[in-house]
Amino acid sequence: MRPRSLLPAVLLLAAGCAAAPVAGPSAAGCDPEPAARSTIEHAQNVSLRYEEGYQVLTVAEPSPGAPPETYVLLRCDGAGIPAELAGAQRVRVPVDSLYAGSTTHLPLLVDLDRLDVLTGIATAGYVSSPQVRERIDAGEVAEYAPTEQVDVERVLTGRPDVLMTGGFDDPAYATLREAGVPVVANAEYLEPSPLGRAEWIKVMAALTGDEPRATAVFDELEAAYTATAERASAAGPVPVVAGSLFQGTWSVPAGGSYLGRLLEDAGGANPWAADPSPGSLTLDFETVYATAGQAPVWLATQDWSSRADALAEDPRYGELAAVRDGQVWTANRAIGPGGGNDFYERGVTRPDLVLADLVAILHPDLAPGHAFTFYTPLP
């Protein structure tokens, strides 16, 4: 445990350092009109509005069930902020220092070529990116939640211009805000669509000032995703079952979920595609088997190396047609040195690569010689 007795002293010091209403680099003398603006088209959980001298960023659901949060991204000192935004957190942009609450933030910075602003990561052991690991090993990126709980003293010592959350609330965030460290929610995982999640690169760019680069990156991956989905749409749908048992229940993707939409775009026949729910459906093995037990493809979600591992965990898996004489795949091809899975890091922001893997699995004739990025077959 961290020494709680140090907290009052650190907060007192931080309060003295945080006399200014906003943290971050000085924006004096800035151009009130940005060089470029980002337009949010696919993401539903975030909006971005540009005004003279500032932007208004609103996250509709910063954590599950939480009310919306609005942030003023201040480009210019003296910008006229209307009274209705008086209570919104302010972040001076572009930021020079950012603490990331989730590994899903890292590929955004990599794709923007702005790893220079990354100075903190919640838990370093889960990082897969070689570029980020180099910065961690060089002591350029601090770890501020090694036990998965935010260490207030570590954050205040680092004094980042902004801390981006991983989409969950933490009592420490209120303390940090009071001490002058802006805390901005990133809840991209609540987006139901693959392109909606990827579009959060524009949110990161609004903080770093890299809107033109974000638009170029997103437009390229959107085009690749769309082209791959169009190829798959011409093929007949292939029955597929996704998920695995966990503590006696099996979570399968509903049609309105992130994975459900990926399966549909990949030309997969998901038995629960008609359910518009944005998340997973929790079922027992018998129900899954009765509905999808004869599917020739199983996309498992466990860290197995072979079908024997699956059978050792639960012999009932052997009743699945995919295990007997079909295909079993897991998204564990790219595992980092600390055990982090790049599928849950870069895969979130590069749905075009995930979709390409899925199409190659379900329709190998459409992707001859495909080099898999995330998925690997289980022997």
Features:
alpha/beta, single chain, five-stranded mixed β-sheet, Rossmann fold, 379 residues, five-stranded parallel β-sheet
Describe this protein's structure.
This protein folds into two domains: 217 residues, Nitrogenase molybdenum iron protein domain (Rossmann fold); 144 residues, 3-Layer(aba) Sandwich (Rossmann fold). Helices cover 32% and strands 17% of the residues. It contains 14 helices and 17 strands. The chain starts with 6 loop residues before the first helix and ends with a strand.
The CATH level-2 architecture of the largest domain is identified as 3-Layer(aba) Sandwich
**Count of separate DSSP helical elements:** 14
Q: How would you characterize the largest beta sheet?
A: 5 strands, parallel
- Class from helix and strand fractions: alpha/beta
Total beta-strand segments: 17
Give me the CATH fold name of the largest domain: Rossmann fold
